[in-house]
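Q: I have two molecules that I believe assemble together. Could you output structure tokens for the complex as a whole instead of separate predictions?
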Amino acid sequence: GDSVTQMEGPVTLSEEAFLTINCTYTATGYPSLFWYVQYPGEGLQLLLKATKADDKGSNKGFEATYRKETTSFHLEKGSVQVSDSAVYFCALTRNTPLVFGKGTRLSVIA
Amino acid sequence: EAQVTQNPRYLITVTGKKLTVTCSQNMNHEYMSWYRQDPGLGLRQIYYSMNVEVTDKGDVPEGYKVSRKEKRNFPLILESPSPNQTSLYFCASSLAPVDSPLHFGNGTRLTVT
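A: Yes, here they are, computed for all two components at once.
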């Protein structure tokens, strides 16, 4: 079945560092891809999405590009802030309910 | 404000004592779902509902029940809770079951002793 693999955390960065969180997927056809973020004590929120190959999703300074050839949807941000500390989930859907990765915890220190 | 509301936020109970976690959404969404989140296991789907009176098992349905009598409400019922159901639970909803982003509640932390 469809699946999502994320890099394991935790990831610890200093403020203003560059962030990459890797996400690869296994699915036939053309799934829609999402990144969700979970701040401490809260539920998941949609961060960004891309619905077809080469689409770039972006929000709050985060970006991810749908790469069909490498089946990837890596999350990037050029300069992280302490307020970006959270757990990030990659997810896909392709005629199915959302399939989530296991999440990557990011800690940003001042 | 569009939201998914879960109650309670925290619940401590004892083995075997029936409990219900409520979930309500005000977005007229057709699709609703329950997940549990455990360290190292990520999110696992318990049950989902495509519409009123239509429910189906997710990946980990054992020990849980749900009902969908109204579009806005989707309660999660634990008839006889056990310690292995200690977890963080999330309700979520979306306009459609596929190709649609999910809106999550803030979670219910359940401890079963």
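A: One point stands out. The first strand of chain A starts at residue 3 and ends at 6.
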